[in-house]
Amino acid sequence: MDSQMAATTDDAQMVLKVPFVIGVAGGTASGKTTVCDMIISQLQNQRVVLISQEAFYHPLTAEQLEKVHEHNFDHPDAFNTELLLSCMEELKHGRGINIPNYDFKLHRSVEPARVVIYSSSLAKYFKLMLHVNPSDVIILDGILILHDPRLRDFMNMKIFVDSDSDVRLARRIRRDTVERNRNILNVLDQYSKHVKPGFEDFIHPTKKYADVIIPRGADNDVAIDLIVQHIRTKLGQHDLCKIYSNVFVIQSTFQI
Ligand code: ADP
Ligand code: C5P
């Protein structure tokens, strides 16, 4: 037992562990989610949660839905960043949160398969939400996750997944037509009108904030191994930097 833990136990103080927060940005279909899955699969014995920025898209009004092909989903204003910030504040203080369960076919939140309902009066609201427990590691994944400085301030590590734009477009066409039932002409139109300009104007400029840039995304095993090693090292140190508080969560030092 380290000295800090001993002091904590002796004083019968309660300890709240601060989560290690990782932001993973990159263009559409760059492999962000695949990279996150690979990192998570190597972080055994940790409580890890992946939160996608897509959950925080503003729901479209009926009028916007009628002209959905014109809607710009690649602009910072498309997201409810205030809600994401308040969720991060809660998680940082060890409290669970509810996040919207976004559906790309319907462009809005839908009822998840498993729901947590806290109050009958709020049941309708929470039915569209997924519950996220406090975790040791929080991974935030999204095209514009490094855009807002207040979000970057929550992060202990920032990653930019850098894949070739032709490869990304090919994956995007496949995904949108096969998995999201979209018409290829609409996909190409959206790409040239919003996705490509959004990448150039807002997403690519956030690369400068990254601590690590991963060329070739999930194909880059070496980069992913190095990132996992770094996270493990930092988690070991991180565990020593506890916040002492009078709240209710007690956690012991974990082993990697
Ligand atoms: P993002 O989260 O950046 O949008 P995803 O990880 O969801 O990207 O990947 C988009 C699509 O490309 C998915 O269908 C995924 O399976 C595929 N994909 C991602 N990385 C690779 C890779 N290295 N090789 C082949 N296909 C990949
Ligand atoms: O998974 P990925 O990072 O590609 O998700 C972001 C992309 O999803 C954006 O480029 C945006 O154009 C697209 N999107 C969409 N329809 C929505 C929401 C987002 O095509 N309803």
- Morphology call: globular
Termini separation? 15 Å
Assigned CATH architecture: 3-Layer(aba) Sandwich
CATH class: Alpha Beta
CATH superfamily label: P-loop containing nucleotide triphosphate hydrolases
CATH topology: Rossmann fold
- Count of individual helical segments: 9
- Average pLDDT, rounded to a whole number, is 83
List the topology elements.
Blueprint: H1 3-10, E1 14-16, E2 20-26, H2 32-42, E3 48-52, H3 62-66, H4 81-92, E4 97-100, E5 102-103, E6 108-109, H5 123-127, E7 129-132, E8 137-141, H6 149-154, E9 157-162, H7 165-179, H8 184-203, E10 212-215, H9 221-238, E11 243-245
Helix pairs in contact: 2-9, 7-8
Residues 28-29, 32, 54, 57, 73-74, 104, 107, 143, 195 line the site of cytidine-5'-monophosphate.
Q: Could you explain how this protein is built, in words?
A:
The protein contains nine helices and eleven strands. The protein is globular and about 50 Å long. It has 256 residues and is an alpha/beta fold. It has one domain: Rossmann fold, CATH 3.40.50.300. The strands form four sheets. It has a five-stranded parallel β-sheet with strand order 3-8-2-9-10, with helices on one face. The structure holds adenosine-5'-diphosphate and cytidine-5'-monophosphate (C5P). Adenosine-5'-diphosphate binds next to helix 2 and helix 7.
Short description:
By secondary structure, the chain is an alpha/beta fold. The chain is built from nine helices and eleven strands. Helix 2 crosses helix 9 and helix 7 (165-179) crosses helix 8.
